User: What shape does this take?
Amino acid sequence: MYCWIQLEYAYIGLKSRLLLPNERSHQRQTVSAMCMKRVMILLPTLDEEEGLADVLPRLPVREMSELGWESKVLIIDGGSKDLTTQVAQESGCELLQQQGKGKGAAMRLGFLHFLQADYDALVMLDPDGTYHPEEIPKFLKKLEHADVVIGDRLRGAMDPDAMTRTNYFGNHVLTWIAVALYGVPMNDLCSGYWGFSKQAVSMLKLNSMRFEIEAEMYTSCAAEDLDMSHIAIRYSKRLGEAKLGSVKDGWNIFRKLLVRRIFTSPHQNQVGEGNLNIR
Assistant: This one.
């Protein structure tokens, strides 16, 4: 029996040496592909043809691949009237039309689609030119030691005119309130640049429909005791028309923080889906 095993290993070794260079290269590529992890890049859009056309070509696909990540883009569109969907389709991105209206509805649909597919991590960012996709690899590296990674604009490199004074002040105040209410560190509550492990997304319980979604993501992560980490990011002036209203959306974010402090989790429409689905 021992001799047969030796002969079999000798044959395998001889066969590998006799392979042509291109065959050996194909073998290495096959093994490498089997070891690759998969990340979904989630982009919510509503009339973002200019921003999307700028962001998609800048995705660091090669750098992510060198880190061992295969990437795929999912765009959740909220009913764009411009050429956003055309830009998405021409770029080969997966495109879904959201149910309901608002960024929160888009993100919840994207999270649910992520959980139903074979992915290991998710990175979400607004494709309006404010966030820099070149920084995605930093999120993936940080996710090796954290459940959730949040891009910090307030302690990062903010370009001139990237944020109004009202929004800058409001972001600081809302972030301070969130930490005071929940006692969990947070540097930039309203950041739109997040990274998640698959386990972290599966534990989120959300029902936000609009721009309060990031605040509820924070409250849900805090309630589930997920390990949240921060990285300083660059923040630039948006391309196209702004959709965030300073006062109204700020009030909705504050109200969400208060409601989730009293009622930790929303009622689930369907057990096991964390209320990510919309009925």
